[in-house]
């Protein structure tokens, strides 16, 4: 139980800061139907947990050592995250409860994958943090720690989706600005990834 709680607290501290994943869930909760919002939350949880588990077992070390793989992720991440950000800025400012206003499920999955997996810095940082904890844990207890991290991801993103969706009527006049702010921050992430790619290939 001790290691499960450690993983839960670490996981909450890891996913709570506003980043690309949180921004995407918030934007979906303010601009699309509740069903789609909960789908986005669950898809984000899936990719976040898969990334956490991969980081826990050291995939960041592989990316850091394989220059070509790192370059590919940086380039794809830059293009896709920037594209998502531009899409948010250009999106409608009206809340829609109808399914007609929702993005396709394939687009949602691709976007959730992009904001989670196409950021090598997040992968490497996650590997250092989670890998560091793994090294400090008794080997038989590590499974409880990573389970706690996974539970934290599930609780956080679903709570965020429910909370923002529940009170989204209060965001009605602010939705366009929320979209713009989220979009600008995502574009910043994308440009930062692009800059890292350029620095890497010099």
Automatic annotation (TrEMBL):
InterPro entries: LeuE-type. Keywords: Cell membrane, Membrane, Transmembrane, Transmembrane helix. Pfam families: LysE. It comes from the Bacteria. The chain crosses the membrane at residues 36-63, 72-89, 144-165, 177-198. It is found in: Cell membrane. It is a multi-pass membrane protein. The keyword Calcium does not apply. This is L-lysine permease. It comes from Clostridium omnivorum. The lineage of its organism: Bacteria, Bacillati, Bacillota, Clostridia, Eubacteriales.
């Amino acid at each position: 139980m001790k290691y499960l709680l450690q993983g839960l607290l670490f996981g909450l501290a890891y996913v709570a800061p506003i980043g690309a994943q949180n921004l995407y869930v918030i934007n979906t909760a303010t601009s699309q139907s509740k069903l789609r919002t909960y789908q986005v939350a669950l898809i984000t949880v899936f990719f976040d947990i898969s990334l956490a588990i991969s980081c826990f077992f050291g995939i960041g070390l592989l990316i850091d050592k394989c220059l070509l793989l790192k370059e590919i992720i940086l380039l794809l991440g830059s293009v896709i995250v920037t594209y998502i950000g531009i899409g948010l800025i250009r999106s409608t400012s009206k809340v829609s409860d109808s399914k007609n206003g929702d993005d396709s499920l394939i687009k949602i999955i691709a976007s959730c994958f992009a904001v989670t997996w196409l950021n090598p810095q997040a992968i490497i940082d996650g590997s250092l943090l989670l890998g560091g904890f793994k090294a400090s844990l008794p080997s038989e207890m590590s499974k409880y720690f990573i389970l706690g991290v996974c539970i934290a991801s599930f609780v956080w993103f679903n709570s965020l989706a429910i909370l923002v969706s529940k009170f989204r009527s209060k965001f009605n006049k602010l939705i366009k600005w929320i979209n713009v702010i989220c979009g600008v921050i995502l574009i910043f992430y994308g440009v930062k990834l692009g800059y890292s790619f350029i620095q890497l290939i010099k």
